[in-house]
């Protein structure tokens, strides 16, 4: 009996880099600096907007506690996103699997739709055999460039574009 590791394998997509039994390896996802910068910008912008709306009605000093509460809530949501973000992908012949930090399968299904913003962001819709579709957001700096391009091609092909 062999023990399997739950850690993501090195990036692999081509058949030559598959495991000895022919199964594709997991592709590790890095933290995206672009997503974190955008999220930080959104938190700051939303916090300042709350202060700008509350200050004329309540006064500047009375608006500060509510503004800090909104900032704390948004910061906690950003941390929750970080804890639940996918850390590995496995590209199969007919489907895509998404794995979380605990090694648990987060989503699996065929790619049913795709949206791409330049070469920086890819949004894939995964349709499982049963149930609702899941959306996967992938930034270009989160995975190696050849794999990002391959996923974009698979997404466009599956979406019929």
By helix and strand content, what is the structural category?
Answer: alpha+beta
CATH topology of the largest domain: PH-domain like
Radius of gyration: 20 Å
Shape: elongated
Specify the biggest β-sheet. 6 strands, antiparallel
Helix-residue proportion = 40-55%
| Overall pLDDT | 83
**CATH arch. level architecture of the largest domain:** Roll
Contiguous uncertain segments of 5+ residues: 1-18
Beta-strand percentage? 15-25%
- Figure out the total of helices: 3
Distance separating the two termini: 46 Å
The count of domains is: 2
Order of helical and strand elements? EHHEEEEEH
Number of strands: 6
CATH class of the largest domain: Mainly Beta
Q: Which strands sit side by side, in order, in the main sheet?
A: 1-2-3-4-5-6
Describe how the helices and strands are arranged:
Layout: E1 27-28, H1 33-58, H2 60-84, E2 88-91, E3 96-99, E4 105-117, E5 121-127, E6 134-139, H3 145-159
Antiparallel strand pairs: 1-2, 2-3, 3-4, 4-5, 5-6
Helix pairs in contact: 1-2
Protein described:
It is elongated and about 60 Å long. The chain has three helices and six strands; from the N terminus they run E-H-H-E-E-E-E-E-H. The chain folds into two domains: 20-30 and 86-159, PH-domain like, CATH 2.30.29; 33-84. Mean pLDDT is 83; it is low at 1-18. A hairpin with a 5-residue loop joins strand 3 and strand 4 (105-117). The protein is of the alpha+beta class and 161 residues long. The chain has helices at residues 33-58, 60-84, 145-159, and strands at residues 27-28, 88-91, 96-99, 105-117, 121-127, 134-139. The chain has a six-stranded antiparallel beta sheet with strand order 1-2-3-4-5-6. Helix content is 41%, strand content 22%. The termini are far apart. Helix 1 runs antiparallel to helix 2 (60-84).
